[in-house]
User: What shape does this take?
Amino acid sequence: MVLRILILSQWALAIAFCILSDTYLIPPRISAKDWIRSGAKIRLERYQTRLSSRRALLNLIIALNLDTFSSSEEQEDRTRLFEGAMKWIDPILAPSSSRTRWEEATRLAMNEALEQLSERELPSDINDNWGKGGFLSSQWSQSHGGKENYWRDFIPKGIYMAAKLRLEAKLPGRKMDVKP
Assistant: This one.
């Protein structure tokens, strides 16, 4: 009987030590943070922004996502969005003709914005001409107007904010030089 009590108390002491060490001595969040910094060599910084709608946020993510366009060793295929990279949107926006038009308008706007927003010092106010799509051609604006394209104003806002974040965070472009 005494032996059983000693064995149970030994296990209770071991479990209590594990709980206390995980809680107070080496919490998992600190361990994970240290491993990410030293072992994985990942540096994290937080950037905050405000967007006017969910559609603008989706366009921001699409513009920042490196997998938006398919690419090979030589070049990026900007004639269409990479189908596999757009599957994450399915639970948010069901596939439909409106979504297809939105994706195509996004692709065209990203292609137009590529040159104009990449190396330029961007104004901080999203409500100025650049934030409202001043970097897009009148042809793009005319071809995506109308009530059925209610999402038209959110596309340039998301792309503009992605360009601002890319400049502010000094993010690399879609291609990175791999150093041996």
Summary: The first helix runs from residue 2 to 25. The radius of gyration is 25 Å. The longest strand covers residues 70-71. Residues 176-180 have pLDDT under 50 and may be disordered.
